[in-house]
């Protein structure tokens, strides 16, 4: 039985403590989930694992998220939302403290990311459920949701920076970077502590016994709708493109631009920062213009950036003593592609949810999670194999193909949306 210290703590304070734990939860998982690129680079340096082989690591993160997402909703009500979050943080905390002691073989890292994937599925559904329980009204709900999602991006931004501080550029075989997991384990303890001393009224979240079967059936029915099918293709293609850049940017910097490993991982943080800024700015732009021209414009600029940046990177001359103060321009501008890539995914997710009845939002969200995970896994693996067979320049050039397919699917998606709106009138 999990310990609770409910006495002598005012309700308002308990909600505050729960909210704090939500922020810490998302911060920890932002670092762990988006550390794949840094870990892939370090596994090549520490263990000499090939790019094609190490690319499978993305699947050990994404597939458990997809599979567990189907199952979590069916047992979470029985287990309890707060206990679910505590269980997820406990599992990940144990793995974090174990990693510096056991991480001597590739399968240890597979186990880590599989554990993180399962725990994140529990945490994400629990967090989304908790936001509704601790919010007084719709405005507070929207505000808390925005802050938590924003804090997730801060975690992504900080993650690679934190990991880079533990890396020894002069010793490729050094495993000192694994000590970062002790820090993450301590953060898990903080989250567990705040959850343990908090009280959460979960009576409004109790679900009927057959909810899992209903949700699963709804998901299958949705797939066969033309609008949803085209959306799934669009989301799949986007995440395929996104993950190929996010996962392989540190390796690209190390191998192709010949910069130190720590600097390569810091470049991943710049990419995350560009993602965060792009999504914030898109919120303002979309108030003034239709979503389709906006996302197609972003996609076009992204393609132009690839066509310009890859040749610049190929011809760049990097000094062996390079740092952020004397690096050539391409080192800075390459991650800025995230500005134009990042707005597409949340935009199309918002469009499909707005076009779906509210009682189907949970089923639609399940499809988004599943096919995003599949796209991320496939994108990382394809890029890794092309990288291994050719080089990083070719691997990123190949992203132009799914970009073209994504543009076509987005146009079809818009037409189905427009057709549905016309029929309602």
End-to-end separation in angstroms reads 55 Å
- Name of the CATH superfamily of the largest domain: MFS general substrate transporter like domains
Query: What shape does the CA trace take?
Result: globular
CATH architecture of the largest domain: Up-down Bundle
Rg for CA atoms: 22 Å
Total beta strands = 0
N-to-C SSE string, H for helix and E for strand? HHHHHHHHHHHHHHHHHH
Structural class: mainly alpha
Beta fraction = under 5%
Largest sheet: none
- Write down the CATH class of the largest domain: Mainly Alpha
Number of helices: 18
Instruction: Tell me the count of domains.
Output: 2
Uncertain regions spanning at least 5 consecutive residues: 1-12
pLDDT averaged residue by residue: 80
Structural overview:
The protein has 425 residues and is mainly α. Helices cover 78% and strands 0% of the residues. The radius of gyration is 22 Å and the shape is globular.
